[in-house]
Amino acid sequence: MDMERVLKGSPWTFNNHLLLLHKLQSTEDPLLVPLIYTPFWVQIHDIPAGFFSERLATQLGNFIGTFMEYDGSNLGKEN
């Protein structure tokens, strides 16, 4: 139960270092697991009103990594 909470609640840090975890399957070779990336939510501030869109979010996400998902639920609010 604790392991699932940790795996689903990533990213995690230890001593200010990113900690990447992967639950091994029974046939998986641990030396072949690529622990090289993790998803992050990124919040962008100070975009002028009317300019922020899913297209802009996609472009910004792809600029810093690989865009995965967009949440426009706070558009039009003070956030």
Q: What's a quick, concise take on this entry?
A:
This is DUF4283 domain-containing protein. It comes from Gossypium davidsonii (Davidson's cotton). The chain has 79 residues and is α+β, with helices and mostly antiparallel strands.
Task: Provide an overview of this structure.
The chain has 79 residues and is α+β, with helices and mostly antiparallel strands. It has a domain at 39-79. It is built from two helices and two strands, in the order αββα. It has helices spanning 2-8, 54-64, and strands at 12-14, 17-19. A two-stranded antiparallel sheet has the order 1-2. Strand 1 (12-14) and strand 2 (17-19) form a beta hairpin. The longest helix is centred in the last third of the chain and has 11 residues, at 54-64. The mean pLDDT is 83.
